[in-house]
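Journal club prep — side note

Before the paper discussion, L.F. wants everyone to see what a predicted structure for a comparable chain looks like in token form. Sequence:
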Amino acid sequence: MDASLLAILLALAAAAAWGTGDFTGGLASRRVDAFRSVLIAFSVGLVALLIVALARAEPLPPPADLAWGALAGLGGLLGILFLYRGFAAGRMGIVAPVSAVLTAAIPVVFNALTAGLPGRLQLAGFGFGLAGVWLLSRPEGSGGRPEGLGLAVLAGVGFAGFFIALGQVGETAVFWPLVAGRVAACAGLAAYMLAARRPMSPRDAPLGLLVPAGALDAAGNLFFLLAIQLGRLDVTAVLGSLYPAVTVLLAWLVLRERMTRLQVAGVGAAVAAIVLITL
């Protein structure tokens, strides 16, 4: 199979895994503190990645690859922390789409500066993809003053940093950089929760939801890293950022939640983006 096509399929697999994991983790966060949910899910992902790395007897990569993996983990963690703070301080309808679009847009700009622009059809696909991410993340009737906008920008920068840092990992390294990222993220989140005096015990936590959420998140990271190693960062970043479509569709199918007109339009834009990028 052509490497660029395989990269596209892996990026879409990452979006599917992340979107499903967000749906499962979202159900869990209704029963337990969101930060504790993230810590438990991250810890599950760390254990899963570590077991696979040891089982495959993957040699340790150069320190630079481990450092990039750790930096990616910290970027993802900062994105989550700023996103949650933004939700608390402002309107979710402003914070979510701004952070999501920046998550996809910053790697596109970074790759344009470092590797040049892609073809016209892919550029058009990027436009549809960014529009789809915005529409999927924005609930209807969410007007008002853009409170929490600064935190949304910081969240988007953090998530984009996760994408870009993973893109710097060498082609021979797979699991150990992801392990390094999870170690850094779990340590950073645990330190934050200790400082904020938040409970970290898994007692009463819905492990039946958090364990698959952590495994799916780790799988999404793996698919995304493999996609970046085979294809362009901008293509994989835009396609990987379409994960809200999966979460919205699962909420519609499983929970019977009504899809808003904006979300339906976002799914349509996401499909158009996939078609244009793959041409």
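L.F.'s comment for the group: The first helix runs from residue 3 to 29. Keep this in mind when we get to the figures.
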